[in-house]
């Protein structure tokens, strides 16, 4: 008998999204089953603690479900989910870093909070978010073959050999595509954000 995951592989993600928007929780459950292991792999590379990674994954699907109406189908559903997962993981890491930074241990080591340390200015956070949006937008504008190669390398962390297999092309082609993609993104970002030279 066909498993739900195998069955969803044959169905169109957009159809499942449309059904989920109409309140069909089973349709969204099928999307979760289809993508949870891939997303957990992505999140685990960003959040090393496995328990925290599972929390981030859960938060990702909650945010995705609540934001289904914002999915316009301009990119693959997995790409949209991927962005939510990465942003959720980054927010988790930023929150943890701030918590660690905000706590000052007193001299006798009791661990009581004595004072809040300086926190990044809102302008800095806004600038970082703007840069991140610009990079993602720049990647989205790439030709499909370049975008796919760069996404597999930079966002999914696949090796050149794995990308060559996934894209069914020689490894030299993969290297060329990734180089051209990076070059395009770096040039565009350097124009918008002078002094920023890497992804």
Short structural summary:
The chain is mostly helical and 199 residues long. The protein has helices at residues 4-10, 13-21, 25-46, 50-66, 77-102, 122-140, 144-155, 160-167, 171-192.
Q: Would you kindly provide a written description of the structure presented here, covering whatever features stand out?
A:
With 199 residues, the chain is an all-alpha fold. The protein folds into 2 domains: 104 residues, Rna Polymerase Sigma Factor, Chain: A (Orthogonal Bundle), CATH 1.10.1740; 53 residues, Arc Repressor Mutant, subunit A (Orthogonal Bundle). Helix 4 crosses helix 5. The termini are far apart. 19% of the residues are buried.
Count the E strands.
Answer: 0
> What is the H level of CATH, i.e. the homologous superfamily of the largest domain?
RNA polymerase sigma factor, region 2, helix turn helix motif
Beta-strand proportion:
under 5%
Number of domains: 2
Tell me the radius of gyration.
20 Å
Low-confidence stretches: 1-11, 104-120
The span between the termini is: 45 Å
Major sheet attributes: none
- How many helices does DSSP assign? 9
User: What is the CATH-assigned architecture of the largest domain?
Assistant: Orthogonal Bundle
CATH class of the largest domain, named: Mainly Alpha
Outline type: globular
Reported by name, the CATH topology of the largest domain is Rna Polymerase Sigma Factor, Chain: A
Average pLDDT over all residues:
77
The helix-strand sequence is: HHHHHHHHH
Helix coverage percent of residues? over 70%
- Strand pairing plus helix content: what structural class? mainly alpha
